[in-house]
Amino acid sequence: MKLIIREAKIIDTKSPFHNQTVDILIADGFIKKIGSKLANPDGFEEITQDNLHISQGWFDSSVSLGEPGFEDRETIANGLKVAAKSGFTGIALQPNSFPVIDNQSQVLFVKNKALQSATELFPIGALTKGSEGKDMAELFDMKNAGAVAFGDYNKSQANANMLKIALQYVQDFDGLVIAYPQDEMIKGHGVVNEGIVSTRLGLKGIPNLAEELQIARNLFLLEYTGGKLHIPTISTAKSVALISEAKAKGLAVTCSVSVHHLVLTDQKLEQFDTRYKVTPPLRTETDRKALLEGVNNGTIDMITSDHNPIDIEHKKMEFDAAKDGTIGLESAFAALMTVLPLETVINKLTAGKNIFKIESNTIQEGSKANLSLFNPEGEVVFTKKSIVSKSLNSAFLGLTLKGKAYGIINQEQIILA
What we know:
- By secondary structure, the chain is of the alpha/beta class.
- The chain has 2 domains: 2-53 and 365-377 and 403-416, Urease, subunit C, domain 1, CATH 2.30.40.10; 58-355, Alpha-Beta Barrel (TIM Barrel), CATH 3.20.20.140.
- Helices cover 28% and strands 22% of the residues.
- It contains 14 helices and 18 strands.
- The strands form 4 sheets. Strands 1, 2, 3, 4, 5, 16, 17 and 18 form an 8-stranded mixed beta sheet that branches. A 4-stranded parallel beta sheet has the order 6-7-8-9.
- α2 links the parallel β7 and β8 (120-125).
C-alpha cells in the first residue's frame, strides 16, 4: 500500500502535528512523511475528502456480533466491515455468541476469522463458563490465546465471592475484569427506567438503585482485593459519583458509557418502540447530563457504541418480550458530535486502547498507519441507507446527526464508506 492523504487536519493531542492541516505519505503500512504539498513523483494513490480530518484509529470496547451461532444477526466478516466504514480500527468482541467465548479454542476461532480484516478484533473472554455465573472460565488460557479482558456480557455477577476470586486471580498475569453493574433482584421484571415515563406508560421500571448498589459492592470488593476492574456502560448520576470517589481513593477502576446514553433519554419510549429497549435502560435528562459531565471531567474513561445486533424476530414484538440492544457503530461518531466537542470525542474513542493494553500509534513519521478518517461538520439524517449491519435495530434512525466517518487506514488496507 502506497498512498498520500491530501490536506488532512490531524486531531491527535500527542502528535507534533496536532491541529495542523498537512499531507501524509504512507508506504508499507507506516507513515513515511508528513508535510505540506508533498510531491508525488511515483504516482502513489491519493486520498482527498471534503473537510478531511484524521486521528489515531478509534477503538470500541464493547461490540457484539453473532458468529458463531447467531450469524443471522451478524457475521464477523460483515461486522468488521461495518466497524471499518464507521471509523473503527479496533473492536473488543463480547463473548455472547453460541457457544460462548469461554475457552482458548473459541478465542482462537474468532481471532482467525478476523485475520484478513482492516479492523482488528480483540476478544473478551467470558468470566464464567457459559457466562452462567457459576464456575470461573479458563482465564489464563484465554489470555494466552489473545483475550484482552474477562466479563460476562450484560450479566452481573451475583456471587460476590466469585468476583473476589477473579479479581485476585487475574493479578498474576495483569488481567482486566469487566463487571456489568446490575443487581438482578432489584431489577426484577423491569424493562425500562423507573420513573415518570415508566409509570405513565405502564411499563415495569428498573430503578437506578439496581446499578448503583452493584457498583458500590464491586468497588468494595476491588478495594479489598486490588487488581483492575472495568465497569461498562454506566447510566446514572450516582454511578458517576461512586466511580469518581473510588478513583480519588486510588482504586484501579475504569468505566465506559454508551453513545445512546449520552444522547437519548427515556422520553424516547413514548411510542413503545423497541429500538429504544436497551440495557441498562435509557435514563432521565438529569442522568444524561451527569454522564456528559463525567465524560468531560475524566471520570468516564471511554465511550462505546455497545453495538448489539438483534434480528427482527426478537426485536419487533411487544415491548416486554423484545430483546435488549441497539446497533451503534455506524451512528457512533456523528451522534457524539451532537453533544460533545471534537477533541473529547476523539479522546474517548481512543482511550480504551491503553486500558485494554492495545498498541496506540501517535500520528508522526515512523509510526504505524492506524488512522480514522472523518468530517466533523455537516448535518445528516440517519436512515436505513446509513446502515451496513445485517440487523437494523438502531436507536438513532430518523435523528439528525452531525459529521461523518469516512473510514480507516489500517493493516495496510484502505476502507472507505
